[in-house]
Amino acid sequence: MGELGMSTIRVGVIGAGNMGADHVNTMHRHVSGAVVTVVADIDHERASAVVGALPDTRATSDPYALITAPDVDAVVIASHDTTHADLSLAAVQAGKPVLCEKPLAPTLDECVRVVREEQRAGGGLISLGFMRRFDPAYVELKEALAAGVCGASLLLHCVSRGVSSAPGATDEFSITGSAIHEFDTVPWLLNSPITEVSWHAPRATTAATGLQDPQLMLLRTADGALTTLEVFLNAGYGYDVRCEVAGERGTLALANPARLVTDSARARSVGYPADWRPRFADAYRLELQAWIDALATGSPSPLATAHDGLVAGAVAEAVISSMKNGGRTVAVQVPEV
What are phi and psi of 236, to 5 degrees? Predict the structure, then answer.
């Protein structure tokens, strides 16, 4: 029991913040065939709080000890973005499959290093948490595009808004930590790679100091379609993700997933979630279950790969280059590995 290809996969989760805690809760309550055995965080008390309600789960402040622990078969990395590359490589060196949250790494050079080391180890150990590939709404949108429901895609309009930015957020973080989702989703939806980008910005909101927010990016894919991407970390009103495709014979758009309509004080309203967890709960559950099922059966992971993370990282680097060079159009160059 606990060996890959058998009934129960013992999982260690690195990171006990919102993302890591959510993964622990989802696996414990909603994913079959998995048990969380260890949770690591540099703040031991925070890790202890996450495992408090779980039976037979322990906390540690040492993520590398978690990776090499004999009762950990597979690793989820949900710690700070700057730790992703080194922790992923440690899991690869230990021969353990890893689900690393996006981004694979904040810089393209680190992405290249991770992909090369994984390939040297035989490949296939790293899965990347681009969970929108499992979101039912995005999956339905992709199927409709593939079926030609609205004809050839001409324009995509993507919006990613949040309530407030994380402490210490930078202009680059808006790209590598938020827009990175669309850098994977857009080519996945269109089955066409992003070839060139440009970055633009209006005046910054006064809700954040020292941060260019919102940002607007233009992405051109090899099929000739053009995507507008708005990232607004401090929109204030709620967490709001949108995607609309305009084609030759019509449009397709994600519907508002709100489940409750309120009629009160002579007004009708729907609510917005405070963050990503309610909106993408199904996507994370389905992604984790698909990952565990593949490990249990010894099948290839159906999740995004380390190389997919490298490609998204190349797009992010091009956008950052445009940002630092007056918004000029920059070609995306994916390194050979």
Answer: 85, -45
Cβ–Cβ under 8 Å, residues 327 and 139? no
184 in Cβ contact with 114 (< 8 Å): no
Domains in the chain, CATH or no CATH each: 9-131+281-303 (3.40.50.720), 133-279+314-331 (3.30.360.10)
Residues whose CB falls within 8 Å of the CB of residue 57, separated by 6 or more in sequence, listed in order = 36, 37, 38, 39, 51
**How confident is the model over 272-312, as pLDDT tens digits?**
999 999 999 999 999 999 999 999 999 999 999 999 999 99
Q: What secondary structure letter does DSSP report for 299? A: P
Pairing of strands 250-253, 261-264: unpaired
Whether the full predicted model's pTM is greater than 0.90, yes or no, is yes
With a CB cutoff of 8 Å and minimum separation 6, the contacts of 70 are: none
